[in-house]
Amino acid sequence: MQTYNNYFFSAVAMFSVLKHKNKWKLSEVALILPMITQPKIVKSLNLRRKDMSLLDLIVDKSDYFYNFNKMFHSYRFTSANCVSLLIQMDLINFDKNSEEIIINENYPVDKISSIVNKDSRLKAIDKSSEKICKMLKEKISISEIYIQLGVIL
């Protein structure tokens, strides 16, 4: 099965990051696709042996992030559609009270792994997914992450 740039591919790629933490704010989720769809960012993270902060990555590889604001805005609707698709697939839930996305703990690990292992881009994204998760879940505020990335709302 060949996987192409579509909502399913993006949703699986997004879920690769989401699965590492149980709860996500929508503002955090909105940053996932602009990061993981950039092969240079994914490759750079996969080549690093140690974890680094998002700011360290931005400083070290500033040319990868010079147009992040544009990428963020171009992925807004795709991100929303991917969240909707993941909800329909019962991989995540949206808690209306806390306005957080919650990972379904009973997601089919084998099926997701099977899909990921059939595509080299998804494998690379999955390999970097935990590092991306840690960067987005750093102990700084989400507004500071947006500022570091140059996202203008």
Explain this structure:
Pfam families: MC3 (PF20131). This protein has 153 residues and is mainly α. Helices cover 59% and strands 7% of the residues. It has 10 helices and 3 strands, in the order H-E-H-H-H-H-H-H-E-E-H-H-H. A hairpin with a 4-residue loop joins strand 2 and strand 3 (100-103). Helix 1 (7-18) crosses helix 7 (76-88), helix 1 (7-18) packs across helix 9 and helix 4 (39-47) crosses helix 9 (120-136).
Topology:
Layout: H1 7-18, E1 23-25, H2 26-29, H3 32-36, H4 39-47, H5 54-60, H6 68-74, H7 76-88, E2 92-95, E3 100-103, H8 109-116, H9 120-136, H10 142-149
Antiparallel strand pairs: 1-3, 2-3
Helix pairs in contact: 1-7, 1-9, 4-9
Mean pLDDT: 91
**What is the CA-based Rg, rounded?**
15 Å
Q: How many β-strand stretches? A: 3
How many structural domains does the protein architecture include?
1
Query: Biggest sheet: strands, sense, closure?
Result: 3 strands, antiparallel
Short overview:
With 153 residues, this protein is mostly helical. It contains ten helices and three strands.
How would you describe this structure in keywords?
single chain, 153 residues, mainly alpha, three-stranded antiparallel beta sheet, 10 helices, 3 strands, 59% helix, ABC-3C_MC3
